């Protein structure tokens, strides 16, 4: 048995509006879920790229540190050579002095 308000609700289309509203809410919910899924995939992909880039940067830093150590080692060797050259020049001067003293 219909209550007096039921025909009135149908008359104003409340049932139809309610169904459409529920369908709209369902569509909005699905759209939000799709956006959340897309966002999650995007963030995951970006995270993977960032992690790979960080790994590449760490490798490059390690390589540059090795190059810098090699440069430091070479600089040390050149300093030793320069010092040996100074010793050799001093030795040549002494030999010339001794040679001049013997003449």
Indicate the radius of gyration in whole angstroms: 43 Å
The ordered H/E elements are: HH
Total count of helical runs of at least 4 residues:
2
Number of domains as seen in the coordinates: 1
Structural class of the helices, strands and pairings? mainly alpha
List low-confidence stretches.
none
Estimated helix fraction: over 70%
The rounded distance between the terminal residues' Cα atoms is: 144 Å
Strand content: under 5%
The assembly state of the depicted protein chains is single chain
What does the average pLDDT come to? Answer: 91
Question: How would you sum up the major sheet?
Answer: none
Strand tally is: 0
Form type = rod-shaped
Features:
single chain; 103 residues; mainly alpha; 94% helix; 0% strand
Give a description of the structure.
This protein has 103 residues and is mainly α. The protein has one domain. The chain has 2 helices and no strands. It has helices at residues 5-12, 14-102. The mean pLDDT is 91.
Characterize this entry briefly:
The chain has 103 residues and is mainly alpha-helical.
Topology:
Blueprint (H helix, E strand, L loop, with lengths): L4 H8 L1 H89 L1
């Amino acid at each position: 048995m219909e209550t007096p308000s039921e025909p009135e609700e149908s008359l104003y289309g409340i049932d139809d509006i309610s169904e459409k509203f529920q369908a709209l809410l369902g569509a909005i919910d699905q759209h939000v879920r799709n956006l959340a899924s897309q966002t999650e995939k995007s963030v995951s992909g970006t995270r993977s790229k960032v992690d790979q880039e960080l790994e590449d940067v760490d490798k490059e830093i390690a390589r540059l540190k090795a190059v810098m150590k090699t440069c430091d080692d070479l600089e040390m060797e050149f300093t030793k050579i320069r010092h040996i050259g100074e010793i050799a020049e001093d030795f040549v001067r002494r030999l010339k002095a001794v040679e001049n003293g013997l003449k």
